[in-house]
Amino acid sequence: MNPPRVFISYSHDSAEHKGWVLDFATTLRNRGVDAVLDQWDLKPGDDLPHFMETQLEASDFVLMVCSEKYVAKANAGEGGVGYEKMIMTSSLLNTIDSSTVIPIIRQDGSDHRPTFLKSKLYINFSNDSENEYSFDDLLRTLLNSPLYEKPSIGSSPFKSMDNSRPDRKSDGIKTLMLAVAKCYERRTYQYIWFEDLIMTVSMHRLTLNKYIIEASKQGLIRMESDGAITITPDGISYLEQHEIIES
Predict the structure, then answer these.
(1) Which residues 6+ apart lie within 8 Å of 12 measured at CB?
(2) Are 13 and 67 in contact (CB under 8 A)?
């Protein structure tokens, strides 16, 4: 999968703020996002309006770092930020999905956004001690990797709310148990082999081994002395609860 291309729009409020934005963009690149930033993509002599137009059009997402000065400039239509506002509110909004514009709150104690972004959900980076949580939210959006799967519509209207939280999108245990269920479909014995699982799942065998150990600790499967793998009653209940097999 190609990394998402992200254009970062901000105002040069201070050397400290400019440094924070550089660290922010560098972290995105380190974590699999093609972040575009003037500090390394624009040099003296380049045409600023052309840079903004081409980068905004070529990007999958636009991150607007909302400081107090940024908001004031955007609302007043001043400087480079004002130019980006003009682009974002006119021709480009007709060619890009407006949901790809994400406000990044950087103010201390407020969530002010430019007027044309007031209705948009934002990600809060105002508290440095919570940056990792904020990066998790942002990266899951940029990489299209939500934490939880949207559950399918069930057939039991009276199912208890207890333990009804949806499955995680990236759930190695569930992937393993799906493979276990498929392997059992092809077996006439009450056990399967590690090699059966390797042929069924696409994950690396070392990753698979890690989840086998974890599933064994949770009591979902049992590792036999001869290397065979058997599913436990708790494992069968897991398959039923996750509607992998019918109860």
Answers:
(1) 18
(2) yes
Give the type of residue at 36.
V
Are residues 104 and 217 located together in one domain of the fold?
A: no
211 is a domain residue: yes
Quick one: what percent of the chain has pLDDT higher than 70? 81
Per-residue model confidence (pLDDT) at position 169: 45
d(CA 26, CA 23): 5
Phi-psi region of 32 (alpha: psi -120 to 50; beta: other; left: phi over 0): left
When computed from its CA atoms, the radius of gyration of the chain, rounded to whole angstroms, is 25
193-233 tens-digit pLDDT: 888 888 888 777 878 888 899 899 999 999 988 889 999 99
CATH classification at residue 177: 1.10.10.10
Do 67 and 125 share a domain, yes or no?
A: yes
